[in-house]
Amino acid sequence: MKNKQYSVKVYECSVDDEAEFKAFFDTNYTLFRDHLIVINGYLSDSIKEYLESKTLIFLNNMTLPKGRTRKALEDELKAQQREIDIDRLVAESQMASLSDRLQNNLTVLNERIRSGRELNIEGDLLLLNRVNSGATIYIKGNLIITQLVEGAIRCDGNFMMLTSSPKANVIFHGVEVENSFLKDKLNRVELKNNEIVITPVFKKEINWVS
Amino acid sequence: MGIVIAVISGKGGVGKTTAVANIGLGVAMNDKTCMVVDFDIGQRNLDMILGLENRVVYDMVQVMDGEASVKQALIKSKVHPNLHFLAASQSKDKSVLSSKKVQKLITELKESYDYVILDSPAGIESGFEHTIEFADAAIVVVNPEVSSIRDADRAIGILDSKSQRVKDGGDVAKYLIINRIVADMVQSGEMLRSEDILDILSIKLVGKVPEDPVVIDASNQGKPVILNKNSIAGQAYIRVSSRLCGKKVEIKNVELSDSGIFKRLRGIFR
Lengths: 210, 270
Known about the structure:
- The complex is a heterodimer.
- The mean pLDDT of chain A is about 85.
- A six-stranded mixed beta sheet of chain A has the order 4-6-8-10-13-14, with no helix packed on it. A five-stranded mixed beta sheet of chain A has the order 5-7-9-11-12, with no helix packed on it.
- In chain A, a hairpin with a 2-residue loop joins β13 and β14.
- Chain A is α/β, with parallel strands linked by helices.
- By secondary structure, chain B is an alpha/beta fold.
- Chain B has one domain: Rossmann fold, CATH 3.40.50.300.
- Chain B is built from 14 helices and eight strands.
- In chain B, strands 3-4-2-5-1-6-7-8 form an eight-stranded mixed beta sheet, with helices on both faces.
- In chain B, β3 and β4 form a beta hairpin.
- Chains A and B meet through loops of A and α7 of B.
């Protein structure tokens, strides 16, 4: 596609009195030669012939796009810029809140979870103390417990890490994890392709007889 | 200004009331004034164990309701002048207690005694909560068995959340007494070891009390076992009381004492 853009001078008028019109165009012919004439209202054949004989280019009954002033253009540009800025700010704040949620989703607890206590946690949990018998932890995210667990754990996250816990009652995604599988010093329980995989993180320490 | 100690356990029958009677007497023998209050409303026991059964005129509920003054209601021990006792009501139930009344009574007692020891009811309902609410410290009594330890764990959890001192941003001191330790069973691995109990509860140990058949007789007679110098439990309570009064006494490893040479000799002659 080839295209060109012109800025054309337009003279818009209407014909009230044909003689007066012709006289006006006769006197200002040199000026109107470079103009596009737009005639609103009725255009008689005699006027048409007159304009063609003068080789003036004309249009009849045409609504033309109104030109805008420089100030209006600038205002429009500014408004557009402002909208872009707002969009950017909104996106930035959304990103910030998202990363905030991702980063501050981790709860770190250093207190002993005593019997009868129920923890309900939406995000992830790092627990640096024991879970005593009779306590329950419900958790939507991932879970790491670095000490002995004797209570109940209900975890729906991607993974959890537990120490060797022969007395714990662990349910991962609705499936009970046998305590005999959690035999190493630190065990990772993961959900991989709808299968629960338990891998040792630290092997059991061997105490040599001294 | 004295210190208020609540004696709690969670589970019943672990020897709370016996511990209160003995510690109260032991503290009194260390030249401190001591008031023991029975908070087990409706199931009064402490009066019998202290041997003050027939001396009860007014009870603690009547004091709280203003029907009697503390001076009228308190019972002086026959054994030691420093030990005073406030009985629980046997006819009313736990619903008569309210935080305001308890606070008023405890504040009043705190002003005139060095030690105020509260005997908490078993369980964790309102009576227990009122006992711990205004206590400065708590003594947790456990037996070396899993059910007692789990209940104690729960009681400590409630203590840590409902105590007025914790609500004010402070901390309640918690001490552990392991009661009724049978040395032979610990040795053979049938009974939980103290280290395991401390691992689970993680509070300071203030004493280990061995199982002693003399305790039952002492309770029936109304003469706390601490008065019996030959009793191993009595000696343990003497050590506990001294520790509570700020004396440095080594924790005696009662798990080992049973296999001592005299015991073995006695076993041969039996």
